[in-house]
């Protein structure tokens, strides 16, 4: 029974580490919050002003979302993807997380999850009573599955329905999927549905971000929202873009939405129109530049013969692997790191890795992003001195973590 399943689930580890960090700080301890990942930047002022201007909006909106907002999202996405999406393809939800949960509930088949995967994919699949097929990925392939690895899972039973979750740029690895063509060929061959979680796509460090939807749009549900690029995680506004070929699934999500969250907050939906119609390219460019420079600083100063790590490609995460045999589990190692250094990290086991693999997720967002952005607008190059000045906890936390790694 569902009630029995819920009893066996733990609170989301990303939210849990945030609470633990707060509790330790309240006790007076200095904590380097490298565990919880959220944008360090403030929401653009024009979007905030629109929220204020629309605070009076008190009517229930259409369950699929405000039409003007859906039109803005469809136009914005169509331009980005060079594909014709209509407002009817868009579903507005209270964060993309809720929409993903409804998808898990509705989908009848098996969920293919590459390891590592965001912490909520697997629990949601369990609540949706779908079997999970994990694919263990490799650092050499940016921690993404190959087409043949996906095909191997499907060939075990071609008669089943399969839903692949593909998150690029990836949480927790900070990497980008570079073999989209071969994955799309498998999707077309076996009628595979793909949920493309693109919540970090605007924060890709390269200009020409590519989506799996560009290779097989008719098989791909795009999932994204305001939380990462706009610094609006607490606003809880996300959306799905569902192609016409999956309209039955889209209609079913709308039915479930009507019986769960009804509609997203009206003032936030009206404000979000500005997010997708006004030009925020300068804000996004500055955000990406700072994140790229800070991420590269962490990478360059942490990598060693005792720490394996890939260079960050987007978002605000890195996934170091510590080469040691002192600990039995990555969770045990993270507990020791927190105790010895004050650096809060998340163990790789929370993202699907075997417990004895000493991988962790490191979020490099423990700094005042808005101050960093404001104070470096006229700087042609952000050097280490500026990182020390505007992201001191990043520098100090990395130094502590490096010394810890050298001592084990």
Descriptive overview:
This protein has 2 domains: 2-42 and 281-407, Alpha-Beta Complex (Aspartate Aminotransferase, domain 1); 45-277, Aspartate Aminotransferase, domain 2 (3-Layer(aba) Sandwich). Helices cover 42% and strands 13% of the residues. It contains 15 helices and 14 strands. Helix 4 (67-81) packs parallel to helix 10, helix 7 (147-154) runs parallel beside helix 8 (180-190) and helix 14 (384-390) crosses helix 15 (392-407). The mean pLDDT is 93.
Sequence-ordered SSE layout with sheet pairings:
Layout lengths: L1 H6 L5 H14 L5 E2 L11 H9 L13 H15 L8 E4 L2 H11 L3 E6 L5 H7 L3 E6 L10 H8 L7 E6 L12 H11 L2 E5 L22 E6 L12 E4 L5 H13 L6 H12 L3 H22 L4 E2 L8 E2 L2 E2 L7 H12 L1 E2 L1 E2 L12 E4 L5 H7 L8 H7 L1 H16 L1
Parallel strand pairs: 1-12, 3-4, 3-5, 5-6, 6-7
Antiparallel strand pairs: 2-8, 7-8, 9-11, 10-14, 13-14
């Amino acid at each position: 029974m569902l009630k029995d399943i819920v009893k066996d689930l733990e609170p989301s580890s990303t939210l849990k580490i945030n609470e633990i960090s707060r509790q330790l700080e309240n006790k007076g301890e200095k904590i380097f919050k490298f565990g919880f990942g959220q944008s360090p930047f403030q929401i653009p002022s024009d979007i905030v002003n629109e929220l204020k201007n629309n605070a009076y909006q008190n009517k229930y909106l259409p369950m699929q979302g405000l039409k003007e907002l859906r039109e803005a999202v469809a136009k914005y996405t169509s331009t980005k993807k060079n594909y014709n999406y209509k407002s009817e393809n868009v579903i507005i939800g209270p964060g993309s997380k809720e929409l993903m949960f409804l998808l898990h509930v509705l989908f009848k088949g098996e969920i293919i999850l590459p390891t590592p995967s965001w912490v909520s994919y697997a629990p949601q699949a369990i609540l949706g009573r779908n079997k999970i097929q994990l694919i263990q990925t490799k650092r050499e392939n940016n921690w993404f599955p190959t087409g043949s690895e996906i095909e191997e899972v499907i060939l075990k039973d071609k008669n089943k329905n399969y839903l692949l979750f593909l998150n690029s740029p990836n949480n927790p690895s900070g990497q980008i999927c570079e073999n989209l063509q071969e994955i799309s060929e498998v999707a077309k061959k076996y009628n595979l549905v793909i949920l493309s979680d693109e919540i970090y796509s605007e924060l890709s460090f390269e200009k020409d971000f590519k989506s799996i939807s560009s290779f097989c749009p008719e098989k791909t549900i795009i999932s994204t929202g305001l939380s990462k690029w706009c610094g609006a995680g607490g606003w809880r506004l996300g959306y799905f873009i569902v192609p016409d070929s999956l309209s039955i699934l889209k209609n079913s999500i709308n039915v479930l939405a009507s019986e769960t969250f009804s509609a997203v907050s009206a003032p936030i939906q009206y404000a979000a129109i500005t997010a997708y119609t006004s030009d925020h390219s300068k804000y996004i460019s500055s955000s990406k530049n700072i994140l790229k420079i800070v991420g590269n600083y962490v990478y360059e100063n942490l990598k060693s013969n005792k720490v394996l790590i890939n260079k960050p490609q987007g978002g605000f995460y890195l996934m170091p692997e510590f080469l040691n045999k002192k600990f039995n589990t990555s969770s045990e190692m993270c507990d020791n790191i927190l105790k010895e250094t004050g650096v809060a990290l998340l163990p790789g086991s929370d993202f699907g890795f075997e417990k004895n693999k000493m991988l962790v997720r490191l979020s490099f967002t423990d700094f005042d992003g808005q101050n960093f952005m404001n104070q470096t607008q006229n700087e042609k190059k952000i050097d280490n001195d500026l990182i020390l000045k505007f992201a001191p906890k990043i520098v100090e936390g990395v130094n502590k973590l490096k010394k810890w790694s050298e001592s084990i």
